[in-house]
Amino acid sequence: MGDNTLLTTHAALDRGNPVDTSRNTLLKADELGRIEIAERDGVRVIRRDIGAARWWARTFARRAAAREARALAKLDGIDGVPALLGWNGRELLRSYIAGAPMQQAQPRDRAYYREALRLLAALHRRGIVHNDLAKEPNWLVRTDGRPALVDFQIAWTRGKRGALFRLLAREDLRHLLKHKRTYCPEALSARQTAILNTPAPHSRWWRATGKRLYKLIARRVFGYWDNEGQGRVRD
What we know:
- The chain is an alpha+beta fold.
- The protein has 8 helices and 8 strands, in the order H-E-E-E-H-E-E-E-H-H-E-E-H-H-H-H.
- Helices cover 42% and strands 19% of the residues.
- The strands form 2 sheets. It has a 5-stranded antiparallel beta sheet.
């Protein structure tokens, strides 16, 4: 996102009516801040509050939110991705998408995965890699059964489609296929099975070395105990 876009989103957030926080529904609260369902002008929005982050995590939380804002701005207009409503360095607002996370909805319809592949292709055409699609809560099953994606905090937003981009995009696809194997394995094609069986070199290295340390930090510091990645609710 360039400087002009940042100024536009900042102005849009300050120019709009204040967010009504009196009836917020807390979705997640941890060392990186709070994520809530709030209302603005009577419409549900998702509010990420960086000010609620721990002092030692605030810089990382702000950078992650800024990355999400860049990704959402570049994906503007794609159905199945939240719209960026505002980002001012303290608070990120995005549109609310009605639905349930994958681990709750457990989609078993082939059509869901066909649409999910199209959605993923649309992201990649815009030069965005999600990078966190192993987490089932980042996949939503909307009320009409179609997929949606959320949480772009560690997305690739550079836009360059070189060798590294293609490698990461393939991992996006492989993570989707892992979910398909869990909930709709009979729909996997031979090519998709081959992709599942050949993770990228960096993925193999991660599983052999860094994944245990990551899990230890995630569990001890952030309270993440499983693939749902929800984290504990912090007082």
